[in-house]
Amino acid sequence: MSAADVVVVGAGPAGLGAATELRRRGVGRVVVYERELQPGGVPRHTAHLGYGARDLHRITTGPRYAAAMVRQAERAGVEIEVGRTVRSFADGTVATTGADGPATVHAGAVLLATGVRERPRAARLVPGDRPAGVLTTGALQQFTTLHHQRVGTRAVVVGAEHVSFSAVLTLAHAGCQVAAMVTPLPRHQSYAPLRLATAGRRRVPLLTGVDVVEVVGRTRVEAVVLTDGTRIACDTVVFTGDWVPDHELARAGGLPMLPHAKSPVADATGRTEQPGVFAIGNLVHPAETADLCALGGRAAALSVMDWLALHDWPTAVRPIEVRPPILWAAHTARGITLRVAEFVEGRIECRVGDEVLHRTKHRLWTPNRAIHLPLAANASTRILLSPVERLQ
Amino acid sequence: MAASDAVPSHSPGDNPPTAEPFDVVVVGGGVVGCAVARLLSHHQLSVALVEARDDVGAGTSKANTAILHTGFDAVPGSVEARLVARGYQLLRAYAPTAGISVEETGAVLVAWDDEQAATLPKLAVKAEANGYAHAEVIDAAAVHALEPHLGDGITGGMIVPGEHLIDPWSTPIAFATEAVANGCHLLTGFQVVGATAGAETTTLTAADGRSVCTHHVVNAAGLHGDTLHRLLGFDGFTVRPRRGELIVFDKLARPLLGRTILPVPTSHTKGVLVAPTVFGNIMLGPTADDIDDKGATGSTRIGVDGLLQKGRRILPALLHEEVTAVYAGLRAATEHSDYQLSAQREARYVCLGGIRSTGLTAAMALAEEALALLAEAGCTAMPKAADEVHGIRMTPLGEGRERPYQRGGTVVCHCERVTAQELEIALTSSVPATDLDGLRRRTRALAGRCQGFYCSAEVCAHAAAVTGRPMSDWMGVQ
Ligand SMILES: Cc1cc2nc3c(=O)[nH]c(=O)nc-3n(C[C@H](O)[C@H](O)[C@H](O)COP(=O)(O)OP(=O)(O)OC[C@H]3O[C@@H](n4cnc5c(N)ncnc54)[C@H](O)[C@@H]3O)c2cc1C
Ligand SMILES: Cc1cc2nc3c(=O)[nH]c(=O)nc-3n(C[C@H](O)[C@H](O)[C@H](O)COP(=O)(O)OP(=O)(O)OC[C@H]3O[C@@H](n4cnc5c(N)ncnc54)[C@H](O)[C@@H]3O)c2cc1C
User: Fold this and answer.
1) What 3-state DSSP class applies to A273?
2) In terms of domains, do A71 and A27 share one?
3) Are residue A55 and residue A101 in the same domain, yes or no?
4) CB neighbours of A40 closer than 8 A, spacing ≥ 6?
């Protein structure tokens, strides 16, 4: 069995950010395992601007951002091994498999940075036939950006959060008309400028308060049917957002999960309930922007070094407690991020014991959108987030 | 029909200019037709298997609950009871040799009220009448001890240790592959729409104009068995599809269950069960709806909601897990409760009709039956010498054994851990995958939790590279 000081699972922004920082700070052998044949994670195939503002301090495209992250890591002396899937971790031993067979490596610390995926159609329980032409944004962008394929001629986009507008842009660039965007919520959940620049410019109708209840078409998608009975003819349906962490490895490894987020419980520096095991990036907060994931990776690096040096671990890593309509909350490099279940007005309060750490202004909160509270809470204390007043 | 359009009865290598009639043509490449073709190919016969779709096993045979039934609950004395019991033994023995995954998890039949509990002793008697001696009635506490995650309100149970899980996808493909290895002609995309009977032969014509000439015909057309039956001049049963919807849950749910949880069956249906799969998922279903459209394999809101409601009662924790797939299969139900098997000597025709909800289990016994019926219909078949019969071995798809990625390989589908080598084998085998669904049934690629978020593009690119067909073909883009 070989040995590494740190094993990182996943060469996305979070994993690469952490690995680069660890090497820059002098940690000996840092190995990143990536199951794809190219490192970089999701940004590899999101060929639009919007990456790097807070970590690279410039705005760039996904592929450029991914390439920059990989370059930084390689320069820092990180070993990136692609085409290698991590199968399990237990007691400091990481088991992998790849083209040249299975292997195990002993690791002083393990960082899980396996990312998120979009909830696919079946998991959303949308009934109907199972024709070709049903995609997620992730799949769509791989077909178009990595393989230069046309996916169809007329699409319906399900969802109206940030990533949904990214899907609209990708479809437009791939020559596919967008018949409509559909969200069961009363409004879209992105920024007005993003909407304007994508769907607005192309006059894509945004249908609110309705959901897709059936996919029609036996071999190829022919239409979708909405809750109100409307039938929209299309040959492509893209299910966007509604993130689920790719948490199989974490769960199989015995880490407890946050119920709603379905992400492993981790503190502000990525420490999980198991000493020496860290969880970072969108795996722990589905989903944030890439730069925040990378910064989170960097922040975790310091904590990893402490662990390697001192073998000290908090006795309890507690999830942040939340009250409805808050669904879940998790730590990021910039404080706490949370999600609400619906459009709701009011103030959010953050408490530790009886002490109020933070209270927001009264405002309207948007579901499916990251809500950041800029506070660095001590990870192992009990944090309670609750709406203090709620006006509809 | 031009002679050149006729399909020769020999392999392309020894193509005779004028086509000799086949000894037997099997119509329908579902699990039943494939099993028949396999057994016939072990005999000194020229055989063709014709299938309307572009692939075998792509009809009802791909969309079932994947249980290898002991037949404990069949109607004693029925043809179905006999063939399920026999098919169970045959397939259980064959599967491991051919690389078809089976798992002997056993089942527990659970009663949820007093009325159901009262029927348990009768079911045990029925099991005995069906020659199954290992069913045993147990109390509610014992059920909970076996399956601690089951919901509240259980009133009793019966264990059926012999119920197995089986890989339903590989079964017809293995049969067809073995049939082809033993000289059977497989004609896909061949939808029989016409039949002309002569004095000694029958000519079957396909929708695309091709034709085959044969001495004997075996009808294994599943849902369309009645149509073919009438085309050949017979009557006696009508297929009315009974749709069964199913929900497949994430593999992370697998620890919730040790064995199959059966409900107390009714005369209409075996009811909604919760079962592990050999692939490591948990399956909930099926529903039972009589419908008219033989193509209506879509799932429905009512069906899915109804299943979730039942599932919540049976295994509450299941509902916290993600759903990986929802699908529906159509049982070839008829006005009769039993299989509709017959031999017609004059017409040199054998019908295997009305195989409703046990055809996967009974397939190999139905093949034996077909052989016997063919003899009745005037087709005597001498077995080939043992050393002339070729066996085959598929790569097992189940989790019960080591999978290829564990030995090493470039993983393409990450959720199901399918390697590039497996894709290549599936695309180049003698019964190859021709579309993504076929690839999924042969390798599990795209059958996992992400439903293609990570790998659909990569899988299509591999398929295109291996076959030389454009990627858009594999994506289903017109
Ligand atoms: C359509 C779309 C548009 C987006 N647009 C923007 C944008 O404009 N700006 C922005 O900042 N962000 C954007 N994002 C979000 C951004 O891509 C993510 O925040 C970022 O990629 C998350 O980084 P990560 O490292 O946590 O995970 P990922 O990037 O998902 O990386 C995880 C990596 O782990 C690997 N992996 C998983 N399991 C294993 C295993 N067992 N063994 C080995 N490797 C494994 C995966 O292959 C993957 O490469 C967008 C996302 C999407 C989907
Ligand atoms: C929901 C559900 C659950 C089930 N669960 C189980 C179970 O747990 N265990 C079990 O043993 N059984 C089960 N079954 C039953 C089993 O799936 C079927 O009995 C079996 O698949 C039937 O196989 P088949 O070959 O007769 O039919 P099919 O698989 O339908 O094959 C018939 C084939 O004939 C072809 N065909 C039709 N017409 C023509 C034509 N004119 N020309 C050429 N080809 C034609 C079709 O394309 C099709 O491929 C279940 C069924 C359903 C629907």
Assistant:
1) coil
2) yes
3) yes
4) A11, A12, A16, A63, A66, A67, A69, A70
Residue B8 has pLDDT above 90, yes or no: no
Answer yes or no: are the C-beta atoms of B110 and B157 closer than 8 Å. Answer: yes
Residue B125 has pLDDT above 80, yes or no: yes
> Ligand 1 mean position to B195 CA, how many Å?
57
Q: Is residue A316 part of a domain?
A: no
B27 alpha carbon, closest ligand: 2
CA distance B53 to B33: 13
Contact: A122, B326; criterion CB under 8 Å? yes
Hey, are the CB atoms on B453 and A139 less than 8 Å from each other?
Answer: yes
How far, in Å, from the CA of A41 to the mean position of ligand 1? 5
Q: Does A242 touch chain B (CB under 8 A)?
A: no
Would you tell me which CATH number, out of the four given (3.90.550.10, 3.30.9.10, 3.60.20.10, 3.30.1330.90), belongs to the domain B102-165+240-331?
Answer: 3.30.9.10
Which residues does chain A have within 8 Å of residue B297's beta carbon, measured at their own beta carbons?
129-130, 218
Q: Cβ neighbours of residue B407 under 8 Å, at least 6 residues apart?
A: A101, A102
Residues 132 through 171 of chain A touching chain B, CB cutoff 8 Å: 132-133, 135-136, 138-139, 142-143, 146-147, 149-152
Interval B295-307 mean pLDDT: 97
What DSSP string describes B3-27?
GGGBPPSS-GGG--SSPPPEEEEEE
Instruction: Give the model's pLDDT for residue B17.
Output: 32
Nearest ligand, measured from the Cα of B329: 2
Architecture in CATH for domain B1-101+166-238+336-396: 3-Layer(bba) Sandwich (3.50)
Say which residues have a Cβ less than 8 Å from residue B125's Cβ, sequence separation at least 6: none
Q: Which of A146, A248, A257, A262 is the best residue to mutate to test the B interface, defined by the most B CB atoms within 10 Å of its own CB? A: A248
Provide CB contacts within 8 A for B72, sequence distance 6+. Answer: B123, B126, B127, B130, B132, B135, B160, B162
pLDDT tens for B14-60 read 333 347 999 999 999 999 999 999 999 999 999 999 999 999 999 99
Nearest chain A Cα distance for residue B300, angstroms: 5
CA distance B141 to chain A (A): 29
- What mean pLDDT is reported for chain B? 95
In the reported structure, the alpha carbon of residue B140 is separated from the centroid of ligand 2 by a whole-number distance in angstroms of: 36
**CA-nearest residue of chain A to B251?**
A248
- Helix ranges restricted to H, A10-108: 13-24, 62-75
Task: Give residue A345's Cα distance to chain centre.
Answer: 26
Pocket test for ligand 1, best of A38, A42, A135 (most atoms within 8 A of CB): A42
Q: Do A35 and B458 touch (CB under 8 A)?
A: no
Report chain A residues whose CB lies below 8 A from the CB of B450: 117, 120, 136, 246
3-class secondary-structure state, position B145:
helix
Domain ranges for chain B, please list them: 1-101+166-238+336-396, 102-165+240-331, 404-475
CATH of the domain at A178: 3.50.50.60
Which residue's CA is the nearest one to ligand 2's atom 14?
B357
CB A5 within 8 A of CB A27: yes
pTM of the model: 0.96
What is the value of ipTM here, to two decimals? 0.96
Q: Ligand 1 centroid to B454 CA: how many Å?
A: 10
Q: Which of A280, A310, A340 delimits the end of a domain?
A: A310
The stretches of A259-368 forming alpha helices (DSSP H) are 290-310
Phi-psi region of A368 (alpha: psi -120 to 50; beta: other; left: phi over 0): left
- Of B188, B190, B212, the C-alpha closest to B1 is B212
Give the Cα separation of A228 and B359 in Å (integer).
40
Residues near A298 by Cβ (< 8 Å), separated by ≥ 6? Answer: A17, A18, A20, A21, A55, A333
Best mutation target among A81, A96, A125, A214 (most B Cβ atoms within 10 Å) is: A125
